[in-house]
Amino acid sequence: MITVDKARQHLLALGLKDAAEVLEARLERAAKQDVTYADFLVDLLETELAVRRRRYLDTRTKLARLPFRKTLEDFDFEAQPSIDPRQIRELATLRFLGNAENVIFLGPPGVGKTHLAVSLGLAAIDRGYGVYFTPMHRLIEDLRNAYEERRLERRMRIYLAPKLLIIDELGHLPLDKVGATVFFQLVAARYERGSIVLTSNQTFADWGEVFGDPVIATAILDRLLHHSHVINIRGESYRLREKRRSGVLRSAVEPQQDE
């Protein structure tokens, strides 16, 4: 045990805390399985590396401010037949990040746009890319405040730094002139430098109304669409479908038949 204790102390001194914690268990398993010294060492170090990687991914995910953790494996493609699974899986290879291309998910509320955006974000984090998620209304509010306080350029760096910027729910609220202008500046600054994944419940034809100015909407679309993948999602909301299956929606919106 003196040798084991000394080995544990050495591991702790080297900063290998997790390997130190499982040392005895790994020694017992190695003795039972009669593994080589090299195999035992590899097993011990892989334990340390696995815990460190999990901790790293947890930290990067928190910094990305993702609203939840859902992967492509969690997505129900059968419920949304308008989506081509092959196209989404191709996006999940993240080649679009290397080319600084954008991904735009269009469709009504509840069809899985945010789920798909987050899943691409998680895939990017897993590959070591910087990711940041923000709802559109929070992004505009933040940049508008920075503009009014004359610190827009400095604040803009928060949204220019990550390789992947995810902007959720464009179109839920119309923008004023300042909001539209600062958003254009952000899109222009990231153009051909970093990728944007964007979700919107508005068709491109309606963006002029969203931004309050057809000219600035055209300028934004020109940069977003130049190198982009556009996925139009049609179909019923997941949430409404579940309500209908449970009978809640029917009883709420359909008239009761006379007995």
TrEMBL record:
Keywords: ATP-binding, Nucleotide-binding. GO terms for biological process: DNA replication. InterPro entries: AAA+_ATPase, DNAC/IstB-like, IstB, IstB_ATP-bd, P-loop_NTPase. Residues 99-232 form the AAA+ ATPase domain. SMART domains: AAA. It holds the Pfam family IstB_IS21. The keyword Glycoprotein does not apply. Gene3D superfamilies: P-loop containing nucleotide triphosphate hydrolases. GO terms for molecular function: ATP binding. The keyword ATP-binding applies. Belongs to the IS21/IS1162 putative ATP-binding protein family. PANTHER family: ATP-BINDING PROTEIN RV3427C IN INSERTION SEQUENCE-RELATED, CHROMOSOMAL REPLICATION INITIATOR PROTEIN DNAA. NCBIfam families: IS21_help_AAA. This is DNA replication protein. It comes from Thermaerobacter subterraneus DSM 13965. The lineage of its organism: Bacteria, Bacillati, Bacillota, Clostridia, Eubacteriales.
